[in-house]
Amino acid sequence: MTRVWRWNHPVTVREVLEDLRRERSIAYTTVMTVMDNLHQKGWLRREAEGRAYRYEAVSTRAAYSAALMHEAWSASDNPAAALVAFFGMMSAEQREALRDAMRVVQSADPGDPGETDGSDGR
């Protein structure tokens, strides 16, 4: 998935194989099987091109990461405690990115009752 996200255009198994072979020895059938599995799971879509397929990501890496975080948080028996623990693991840069993200979300929803006092939550 990392290679497909990085390239951000439809790729063939052969292209991924050639890129991976710069780092290690790997068989064509291994790459083909993994990409087919990702397609079956709904992470990649594919379109036939001659005798091969071109694969592309169904969602962005950011959307995928967000879905994983949401899934993990939703599975918690104490979501508030899970968030506190997660925030405690963040670096200063990550906390600042979180603040920036919250400002974006809050500015997109001007009717949010939690933002009537004009504070930025700091």
From TrEMBL:
GO terms classed as biological process: negative regulation of DNA-templated transcription
Region (Disordered): 102-122
Keywords, comma-separated and alphabetical: DNA-binding, Transcription, Transcription regulation
Skewed-composition ranges (Acidic residues): 112-122
InterPro entries from the UniProt entry: BlaI_family, WH-like_DNA-bd_sf, WH_DNA-bd_sf
Example GO molecular function: DNA binding
Family classification: Belongs to the BlaI transcriptional regulatory family.
Protein name (Swiss-Prot/TrEMBL): Predicted transcriptional regulator
Native species: Actinacidiphila glaucinigra
